[in-house]
Amino acid sequence: MIYKAVDVFFLVFHSSLVIFNLSGWIWKKTRIYNLLTLGLTGLSWSLSGLVSGIYGYCPLTDWHFRVLEKLGEKGLPASYMKYLADRITGLDFSSALVDNITLSGFIGALTISVILNIRDYIKRKSPETG
């Protein structure tokens, strides 16, 4: 029973973080937090990946998959996004396709977030004219 509740928690929390990573740059008030979560995600995927030996390592995925294994899930994919896409649709997406879309979305969101955060910073620091 508790594992099912934890599964739902991770499903909602992790999915919400993914959505925020992809869209948090849209609203001025959340841009800096978006940049922070994107940075943490990137660090997790790269640095934690070096330590763990798994490129793209995410502790949330690791913890969630441990819960799913306790619930009897077998043959879990390497990535949370593949798992999520398959779980939501009932289909079996190509891991390579999902990984490419995930990385492209991350790079796109990070690029936009960096540009908008720099623009916002410059606007705050420059003296107002007029």
Fraction of residues in helices? over 70%
* Total individual domains: 1
Number of strands: 0
Computed Rg: 17 Å
User: How far is the N terminus from the C terminus?
Assistant: 63 Å
Which of globular, elongated, flat, extended, rod-shaped describes the shape? elongated
Low-confidence stretches: none
Q: What fraction of the residues are assigned to beta strands by DSSP?
A: under 5%
Please tally the helical runs, counting DSSP H or I stretches of 4 or more residues. 5
Which structural class matches the secondary elements? mainly alpha
Largest sheet: none
Write down the overall mean pLDDT: 93
Q: In sequence order, what are the helices and strands, one letter per element?
A: HHHHH
General description of the model:
The chain has one domain. The chain is an all-alpha fold. The mean pLDDT is 93. It contains 5 helices and no strands. Helix 1 (2-23) packs across helix 2 and helix 1 runs antiparallel to helix 3. Helices cover 75% and strands 0% of the residues.
Describe the structure using short key phrases.
75% helix; mainly alpha; single chain; elongated; 130 residues
How is the secondary structure organized here?
Layout: H1 2-23, H2 31-52, H3 59-70, H4 80-89, H5 95-125
Helix pairs in contact: 1-2, 1-3, 2-5
In short:
The protein contains five helices and no strands.
